């Protein structure tokens, strides 16, 4: 396992133009370096995962429609992140409130644009699980 993810971790989508910060809310009692530790259930668009700016994935129906209207010129549209389930944990062995914690190698699929959301920075650099 890798670094434990906490509130403020930086996220990335390969089709987005921004790297927003994760906002934890699934649990607020267990802290890592004075920040709430994230769980795989911190997936709500907007409240946990802010938009990634503009989406450039043709799998996103809005991008596909705008690109078709522009005669094939890729036309990015505002990100409408839609998680396809919870974060995928590689080894869900550490639990908080019955939910696996989020670690840096976890990923999340966006159903809207088929982007694989990754964690660029866990928000802290000291807590590592074994």
Description:
- The protein has 130 residues and is mainly beta.
- It has one domain (1-122): Tumour Suppressor Smad4.
- It contains one helix and nine strands.
- A three-stranded antiparallel β-sheet has the order 1-9-8, with no helix packed on it. A two-stranded antiparallel sheet has the order 2-3.
- Strand 6 and strand 7 form a beta hairpin.
- It is elongated and about 50 Å long.
- It starts with 9 loop residues before the first strand and ends in a 9-residue tail after the last strand.
Strand-helix topology:
Layout: E1 10-12, E2 31-32, E3 35-36, E4 54-55, H1 61-69, E5 77-78, E6 95-96, E7 99-100, E8 108-109, E9 116-121
Antiparallel strand pairs: 1-9, 2-3, 4-5, 6-7, 8-9
Write a concise keyword list for the protein shown above.
130 residues; 18% strand; three-stranded antiparallel sheet; mainly beta; Tumour Suppressor Smad4
* Poorly predicted regions: none
The CATH topology name reads Tumour Suppressor Smad4
- Morphology: elongated
Number of helices: 1
Q: What kind of sheet is the major sheet?
A: 3 strands, antiparallel
The average pLDDT value, as a whole number, equals 91
Based on the structure given, which CATH architecture is correct?
Answer: Sandwich
Strand and helix order? EEEEHEEEEE
Oligomer: single chain
The tally of domains stands at: 1
Major sheet strand order: 1-9-8
Helix % is under 10%
Q: Which strand-content bin applies to the residues?
A: 15-25%
Radius of gyration from CA coordinates:
16 Å
Structural class determined from secondary elements: mainly beta
CATH class: Mainly Beta
Got a strand count? Answer: 9
Distance between the termini: 6 Å
């Amino acid at each position: 396992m890798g670094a434990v993810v906490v509130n403020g971790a930086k996220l990335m989508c390969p089709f987005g133009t921004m790297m927003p910060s994760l906002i934890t809310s699934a649990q607020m009692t267990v802290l890592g370096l004075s920040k709430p530790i994230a769980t795989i259930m911190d997936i709500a668009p907007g409240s946990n995962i802010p938009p990634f700016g503009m989406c450039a994935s043709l799998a996103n129906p809005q991008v596909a429609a705008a690109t078709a209207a522009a005669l094939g010129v890729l036309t990015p549209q505002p990100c409408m992140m839609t998680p396809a389930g919870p974060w995928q944990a590689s080894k869900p062995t550490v639990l908080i409130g019955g939910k696996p914690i989020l670690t840096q190698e976890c990923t999340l699929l966006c159903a809207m644009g088929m982007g694989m959301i990754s964690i660029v920075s866990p928000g802290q650099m000291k807590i590592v699980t074994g």
